[in-house]
Each structure stands twice: as C-alpha cells, then as structure tokens.
Amino acid sequence: MPNLGNGRVDAIEVVGPMTLGDAVMPCLALQWVPKPVRGEKQTVQRHKATVTLEPTGASSKLKITLTVSRRNFSGSDLADLTYVISAGAANDTGWDDTDYTASRTATAEDLKGVIDLINKLPGFKAWALHAPHSMSINSDNFIALAATNIKSGTGPEGKSEILYRDVDQFVDDNSDYVAYMRIGLPEVRDANAFEIKKIIGKITGNTNAVLRLYRDEYQEYGETAEVYIEATPSTSLTDHVDAHENEMSLYRGPCILEVRSDDLTAAEYRVHLKQASLGA
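The structure corresponding to this sequence follows.
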C-alpha cells in the first residue's frame, strides 16, 4: 500500500488536475519588489508595478505591458515607466539599452523570450508555469488582463500567475488544441528527480490525439526535448503508467504533461509521483 499524503518524504503526491479552460493553467509566474536602480535619483521611490495583457495589442497579436509607478519623497507622483513586450517573429537579445530609468519596448516570439526580457528589468522575476518554454506568443489567442498589481516576492503568496490561453482558439505547432501541465519538485520550476506511479485521466475529442511527458528545463531551451512517455489518450478514464511500487521509473524534472488532438474540448489528468532523492 503506498504512503499517500501521510507526511512522509517518500509518500505519493498527486499533482493536478490538468484541465482545459480559459481560467486554469496559467503560463507565467511573475514577481516584483522595489529596488534601487542605477542612474535614478535617491529621491525616487518605486512603489508599485502592474501588468496588462492585450491579446490584440500589437499588430493584432499579444502585447504585455509592465508599468512601474514612482513618486518622490514628498509623496508627489512621478511619471510611470512602461516596459512593453510585443509578439514578434523572433526573440530580442535585449531591450534598447541597459538604462531602465526610461520606458522601453521589445519583442518576443515565445514564452522563454518573454521570461528573458522580464528578468532583465530591475525588481522583476518571471518563470514558466503550465506551458513549454517554446510556446509561441505570436498570436491573439490569449485572455485579456486589465492592469493588475504584481505581487511581491516577499510573502507566502508572493507571485502573480498570469497569461491564460484562449483554449478553444489556441493551437500548437501541430495545429492541435492542447492542454499543458508543468511538473517539478519541490516547485514546478525545480529539477529534482521523481518517480511516477500513475498518469490517469481522460479527454473529450480524441482525433489524432497524443499524450506526452517530456523534460522542459530553461537551461536546455533549443535542445531536442527528452520524451519520457508517449501514448494515445482515451475518452474513458485511463491510467497510462500504472506502475507497481518497485517498478516506478525515474524522471528528471521539470517536465511538461501535454495532451493534444485535432478536436480537443476537455481534459482532466492527474499525476501520482514520488520524490526520488531524499537528500543527504
């Protein structure tokens, strides 16, 4: 009998559910903390940052706007700074220059390009959630987000989860509708090894359907993905691993569980996994 949820470090952990919807499975995590910026006067206080998503904001494609609000010591508002990332045909190598005391613009082709640009901005931190780093942003098939305060990375709920896909419009490079879930230990961005006992679930819409589990690590961007599992998903509840305790295979995180098909309209999957390395 597996140790399921009883506090043991080798217990089986249930990850999920991976579902398909406009308000689930965000693609991007975002943080901001105020910090001094080279070239900016000491009297300037950066006190708030917001993010806005416009699916048709730049040449009818996705536009991401990060706004930093500032004031002086007396409390008077100063001009906001805006950093705008527009969908484009390629990832920028950087912003216009390294002066972040003025507004800037740049372009990105995929999720990693967005992450790289955000992480160059003072006080900002971004990383991938439930999408591969190679996921294209060069479309209008995302959900709009009005200007929203970005959470600070100093508390227990210190990240904003954003960038939701318009799932009945968004298609991948195979022109398929797709569901994604990122898996990692202890967090989805981490690379600890784990074992999988079950990948269990079902889909609605099974034409040319594929289920894949593959490694998707930031540092390996651009390399051929290491595919661990490939199977045909079913419209009835199916376990695609069903390993006994002594037969569980070892996987290197972080991984993406991907389910796609020509006519996918719904999906629900859970992964039962166990930490593989207990540490020293």
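The first strand starts at residue 12 and ends at 19.
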